[in-house]
Amino acid sequence: MLKKVIFKFLKLHSIEEVSVYEKIDVKKMRNDTKILVIDDEDFKPRKTLEYQGYRIDKISDLESFTIISSYDLVICDIKGVGKKLESEYEGAHLIGEINKQFPYKPIIAYSGHSFDIKYNKFFNVCDEVLQKDTLPDVWSEKIDECLSYSINPKYRWKKIRQKMIDTNIRLDIIIKLEDQYVESILNSKDIKFDNALLNMLPALMRTILLQLAAKKIIGILP
């Protein structure tokens, strides 16, 4: 039976067929992407980073998750934010919720405090965890890495695919959705998923895939 299932999907595309260029036009990437910082205090490296070409918006707390869709990278403090969630974990809980709704978006957590091991489940969904006194050159390096993930179609899909696996979506549905995603990428077309497949998903997962389909892949070649 397993052989029949494998044979059935042999001709479908895999995400491993998508090539990712190692050389990225950093200047274009910084100009074409947007960063959201969530912090109730000043984000000290902001001026230096903006001088280097990053586009940064800062808010003292998140009023609505809908604005996250407009950004390619989220940088979130831990203390003093996420107040609407009324959680002891504050910004860490906020990071967890952002990851649930936008699993394909890179997240950097940062703080000037140390935290109990209970916070690790939130830090584990982050791409980077930095201290508030991190030097600007290190910030620049880590932000460039995360922005390169945000424009990487392979990274995006793998994050979403893992989310579907964790949500117990049927394997055959995941395989078919991956085939349609890769087909769109390989042919430089707008990402489209079959409505019949989308309708078989939980509402949140369906929304995530529709958000992905609406997201344009910016040029990454120099």
Describe the structure.
With 222 residues, the chain is an alpha/beta fold. The protein folds into two domains: 17-28 and 152-222, no CATH class; 34-150, Response regulator (Rossmann fold), CATH 3.40.50. The protein is 44% helix and 10% strand. The protein has a five-stranded parallel sheet, sandwiched between helices. The termini are far apart. Residues 1-7 and 218-222 have low confidence and may be disordered.
SSE blueprint:
Elements: H1 2-9, H2 26-32, E1 35-38, H3 46-51, E2 56-59, E3 73-77, H4 91-101, E4 107-111, H5 120-123, E5 128-131, H6 136-150, H7 153-166, H8 171-186, H9 195-198, H10 203-214
Parallel strand pairs: 1-2, 1-3, 3-4, 4-5
Helix pairs in contact: 7-8, 7-10
Q: What is the assigned CATH homologous superfamily of the largest domain?
A: Response regulator
Q: Which word captures the global form?
A: globular
Ends distance: 47 Å
CATH class of the largest domain: Alpha Beta
Strand content: 5-15%
* Mean pLDDT over the residues: 90
Which consecutive residue ranges, at least 5 long each, have pLDDT under 50? 1-7, 218-222
Portion of residues within helices: 40-55%
CATH topology-level name of the largest domain:
Rossmann fold
Biggest pleated sheet = 5 strands, parallel
Helix/strand class: alpha/beta
